[in-house]
Q: What sequence folds into this?
C-alpha cells in the first residue's frame, strides 16, 4: 500500500516536472532497459525470500556475458553462446549454494568472495576488453517486440510465472 502511494506520488511529481516522462512512448522506451535486470533479479528474489543474500549476482552476470562473447569470437553461434552463458551462470550460482549448504558458510561471506572471484575471472579471460560484432538478428532479439512488449519482457514474464510456481 505504501509503495503504491509512493509510486503514484512519484508519477504525479514527474508529470508536473517533466510531462513527457509519463507518456506511453517514454515509458515504453524506458521499459526496454529494465528487462535484463528484472530477469537477473528473479533468482535473487528467491534467495532473499528464503532468508539468504547473494552479492555475486552482478559478477555472475559479467562472467556469463564474457562466456557468450568469447564463444562468439571463436566462431560459435551467439545462440549457442547464450545457452553456454546460462549454464555458466547456473554453475556459478550452484557453487555458491553448494558451499552454503555443505559447509554452512554464511551466504554473505561466500557470495562476497565469489563476487570478487567471478568478476576477476571474467576480466581475466576477456582481458577486460569489449566484445562486439554480433549479428543483427541476435541484436534485434533484445529490441524486437511482440504485442508491444519487448521479447526480454516476455521472457521475464514466463520466468516470473515459473518462479511463482516453484
A:
Amino acid at each position: 500500500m505504501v509503495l503504491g502511494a509512493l509510486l503514484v506520488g512519484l508519477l504525479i511529481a514527474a508529470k508536473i516536472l517533466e510531462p513527457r516522462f509519463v507518456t506511453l512512448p517514454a515509458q515504453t522506451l524506458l521499459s526496454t532497459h529494465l528487462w535484463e535486470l528484472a530477469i537477473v533479479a528473479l533468482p535473487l528474489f528467491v534467495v532473499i525470500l528464503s532468508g539468504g543474500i547473494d552479492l555475486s549476482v552482478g559478477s555472475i552476470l559479467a562472467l556469463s556475458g564474457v562466456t557468450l562473447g568469447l564463444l562468439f569470437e571463436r566462431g560459435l553461434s551467439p545462440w549457442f553462446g547464450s545457452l553456454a552463458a546460462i549454464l555458466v551462470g547456473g554453475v556459478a550460482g550452484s557453487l555458491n549454494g553448494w558451499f552454503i549448504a555443505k559447509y554452512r558458510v554464511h551466504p554473505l561471506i561466500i557470495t562476497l568472495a565469489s563476487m570478487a572471484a567471478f568478476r576477476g575471472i571474467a576480466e581475466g579471460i576477456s582481458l577486460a576488453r569489449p566484445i562486439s560484432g554480433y549479428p543483427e538478428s541476435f541484436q534485434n532479439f533484445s529490441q524486437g517486440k511482440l504485442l508491444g512488449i519487448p521479447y526480454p519482457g516476455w521472457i521475464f514474464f514466463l520466468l516470473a510465472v515459473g518462479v511463482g510456481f516453484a
